[in-house]
Amino acid sequence: MSRVALELKGVQQRFRQAGNGFLEVIREADLKLERGEMVALVGPSGSGKSTLLHIAGLLEHQAEGDVIINGTATRELSDDKRTELRRTTMGFVYQYHHLLPEFSALENVVLPQMIAGKSRSEARVRATELLQRVGLGERLDHRPAKLSGGEQQRVAVARALANAPAIVLADEPTGNLDVHTADGVFDMLAQMVRADRVAALIATHNMEIARRMDRVVTIRDGVLGAA
After folding, report:
1. Which of 18, 19, 92 shows the shortest CA–CA distance to 53?
2. Is the pTM higher than 0.85?
3. Tens of pLDDT along 207-223?
4. Which three-class secondary structure state does DSSP give residue 219?
5. In the prediction, which pLDDT does 14 show?
6. In whole angstroms, what is the distance from residue 187 CA to residue 156 CA?
7. What percent of the chain has pLDDT above 90?
8. What's the rounded Cα separation, in Å, for the pair 139 and 135?
9. Which residues contact 1 (CB under 8 A, 6 or more apart)?
10. pLDDT tens across 69-97, in order?
């Protein structure tokens, strides 16, 4: 199996503006992520970070170029195949946890596994293990409203890793947390990503956290560059 989990090749994205012009959001982006590698994506608001993550996560079709997941080129795949690949190889963490409020922490980590085809009993075992790893073994039955912000984000990380993805994409995963809590969540995420040999692309405004990753990639006016 290739060490490269995610590759962007010549990715471009543009949106039609009022009139006849186009807004170039991503320009000829090339990027490779290896298993076990954490890469920070930094840039000012509006620079294209979220768009790049959406394209890398097969949530949005690019105008040009290709996204290669575990050696599979995705540009010509059907929407069904893209959805299947996303479900089986990717985990997502957002600035806001987006947990289902009516379900417990355990159930929030069980559900994506059942959607992927696991039995409830298998999913409960995996979810319990992950929540224990993120320090929430005593909070399995708590609903999100009974958890702190940091605990909610830990559940979100466990959920992202529930289906043993090759790739984790995170958009400001600590941006809604205080400094101390953000450090704890990042340390936990980094430990799990490296232990499980996951490739992680993490958009962040926090340069202290960015410098603790393996590489920092900048984006400005849609152009990727090394920090």
Report:
1. 92
2. yes
3. 888 999 999 999 988 88
4. strand
5. 86
6. 14
7. 59
8. 9
9. 70
10. 999 999 999 999 999 999 889 999 987 77
pLDDT of amino acid 65: 94
CA geometry: angle 221, 29, 17, nearest 5 deg: 50
Q: pLDDT confidence of 119, banded at 50, 70, 90?
A: very high
Number of H helices, E strands in the chain: 7, 10
**DSSP-based three-state secondary structure for 74:** coil
Element (H, E) at 133: helix 120-133
The β-bridge relationship of strands 90-94 and 223-226 is unpaired
Phi-psi region of 42 (alpha: psi -120 to 50; beta: other; left: phi over 0): beta
In DSSP terms, 9 is beta-bridged to 66
Please choose, from the candidates 104, 134, 129, 109, the residue with its C-alpha nearest in 3D space to the C-alpha of residue 120. Answer: 109
Beta bridge partners of 34: 4
Give how far Cα 155 sits from Cα of 32, 159, 176, Å: 28, 6, 15
**pLDDT (tens digit, 9 = 90+) per residue, 23-49?**
888 988 999 999 999 999 998 887 888
Let me know: does 177 contact 43? Beta carbons within 8 Å. Answer: no
> How remote is the C-alpha of 27 from its chain's centroid?
21
Assign residue 177 a region (left: φ > 0; alpha: ψ between -120 and 50; beta: otherwise). Answer: beta
Q: Are 32 and 68 in contact (CB under 8 A)?
A: no
Closest CA to 37 of 3, 80, 71, 83: 3
Q: Distances from the Cα of 188 to the Cαs of 47, 95, 113, 157, 185, in angstroms?
A: 28, 16, 21, 9, 5
